Amino acid sequence: MEVVGIIPARYGSTRLAAKALVDILGKPMIQHIYERAKTASILDDLIVATDDERIRQVVESFGGKAVLTAKEHTSGTERLTEVMFDLDVKVIINIQGDEPLVHPSMINDVAYALLEDSSLVMATLKHKITDPTEINNPNVVKVVTNKHGFALYFSRSAIPNNVRAKNASSAAFYKHIGIYAYTKDFLFTFKGLKTSSLEEAESLEQLRALEHGYPIKVIQTRYNTVGVDTEEDLRKAIQIIQDGV
């Protein structure tokens, strides 16, 4: 196999209990994510990696594929690594288990980036921010890139900071879309890296790669997503799906 998609989905959540199973227009959220991701043409397989039997049963009830992983994992990346250990695959896609608006082209884009350029080990996405309220929202992660499309930094703060700019509206802000592609070798390398100070300061795992000197290719997508962490996020996602976006 060349490309496998993994959807990490843990049962516990501090702000929205059992959010993988929360109902969205008659389907659990994990089903919306799985069905959308399944239409990505690049995927040879799609697996939900979960720490809970209830999620596994729900996924299998709608015809999806799920595996149980250790409950001790502290991140989706660790869950991915457990699932990938025995699989013969080139590229692994980490598809967030709380974004029911994921678009298949997002998955295709990050996968093709690694398949077409053997020098790359990790890729992700950005989307141009059009809602000004997102710029200073710490729950919306921002990213800045260099002229070659590689990440310079990810932050929960507004980056770039244009407070001193003569034309404050001139700066473009980009939201980070948390879908990642890794080569299998780099996924295991990444898991073995020491947690970095920037990662801890921002609570953003991808900063570990940057701080250890590994480049992250960032591809712009015209599609947006909503990460469902709160009841407000859930209402927003439901409204967007109802509107047929």
- Could you say which overall geometry the principal axes of the C-alpha atoms support? globular
Q: What is the level 1 CATH name?
A: Alpha Beta
The CATH architecture is: Alpha-Beta Complex
Helicity, in percent?
A: 25-40%
User: What count of helical segments does DSSP give?
Assistant: 8
Mind describing the biggest β-sheet?
Answer: 7 strands, mixed
**N- to C-terminal separation?**
32 Å
Q: What count of domains describes the coordinates? A: 1
- Regarding quaternary structure, how should these chains be classified? single chain
Percent of residues in β-strands: 15-25%
What's the rounded overall pLDDT mean? 90
CATH T-level fold name: Spore Coat Polysaccharide Biosynthesis Protein SpsA, Chain A
Features:
Spore Coat Polysaccharide Biosynthesis Protein SpsA, Chain A, 8 helices, single chain, globular, alpha/beta, 30% helix, 245 residues
In a few lines, what is going on in this structure?
The chain is of the alpha/beta class.
Structure description:
A seven-stranded mixed β-sheet has the order 5-4-1-6-10-7-11, with helices on both faces. The chain has a two-stranded antiparallel ribbon with strand order 2-3. The protein has a two-stranded antiparallel ribbon with strand order 8-9. The chain has eight helices and eleven strands. It has helices spanning 29-38, 53-61, 76-84, 104-116, 184-192, 197-202, 207-211, 231-242; strands spanning 3-9, 23-24, 27-28, 45-50, 66-68, 91-94, 122-128, 142-145, 151-155, 174-183, 217-220. It is of the alpha/beta class. α3 (76-84) packs across α5 (184-192). The protein is 30% helix and 22% strand. The two termini are 32 Å apart. The protein is globular and about 50 Å long. The chain has a single domain, classed as Spore Coat Polysaccharide Biosynthesis Protein SpsA, Chain A (Alpha-Beta Complex).
